[in-house]
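Pinned message: reference record for L-xylulose 5-phosphate 3-epimerase
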Amino acid sequence: MVIKEMDMRSISLGIYEKALTPTQDWGERFAQVNRLGFDFMDISIDERDERLSRLFMEPDDVRAIGSEAVRNGVMIGGVCLSAHRRYALGSPDPVKAAKGREILFRSIDFAKAVGSSLVQLAGYYTFYEPHDHGCRERFLDNLRDGVRYAARQGVMLGIENVDGEDVTDLRELRRILDEIHSPWLQAYPDVGNSAFNLRDVRDDLRAVEGHIAAIHVKDVLPGRPRKVPFGQGIADFGAAFMELKTQRWSGRMMIEMWNEDVDAEHECRVAKEFIETKLKTYGLWD
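Predicted structure (tokens):
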């Protein structure tokens, strides 16, 4: 058996669904991923009704999405669940918190049916509503139930550090991991958000060493957490990648971009070359 060079790499490189040229056809979506040379794609379940409706598809239709990925020679990495901005697990509104629980459970089922091993959760206790003294505890209570369900389904949950409020640094994320204490709940660090929140990225990543399920990479500027071209922002990829090298980390690294208004395939190729060069420069790729 001949083992391809790519199979020997400890880090696989993927792309966010929203980075691709918009299409309603899953086959064409995965064909783009293959054409661009990525190993996997992360699916978006955001707060828009169009994306939330994916959670209510028939199981056979969800499994067909996974079949399209296989047919096009790519993997579905994770399910990026940002819908909790609208229906927060820690919301003071019990109706919204209950909807957030339903979305979490349905996302776990969706991930399992589509062939993904990971659901990424944004670290917001609540987003659009004012915080109260109970929002963190409500978030944790609902998360505990989600973790138990995810464990039964064999799907991991990964919390992302976010811009704004709540889980803005990975030390707070580590406290959550320690409180819930389950192998089915891990960290999904965003290198760009560490920079946006003016965190030392090496210190951030050390806080979750041994608990990193996957990683987001994006560039940012002060006051601008999205749509900053790679290399034109303040994200310290060198420091981040040196720390990952020190930790001997291996796993999936996803390039996070929003390219709906530009030449998406060109921007993806530029970003891919940028990150690949960094991976090689800092010894994460041979």
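Pinned by admin. Summary line: The chain is about 45% helix and 15% strand.
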